[in-house]
Amino acid sequence: MSARRGSGTEVYVKLLDEGVDVWRPVPATKQPDGSFRLCRPQWYDPHSETWEFPPNTRVRCEMKKFADGNRGLTAVAEADRVAPAAEED
Question: Residue ranges of the domains in the chain?
Answer without folding.
Answer: 9-78
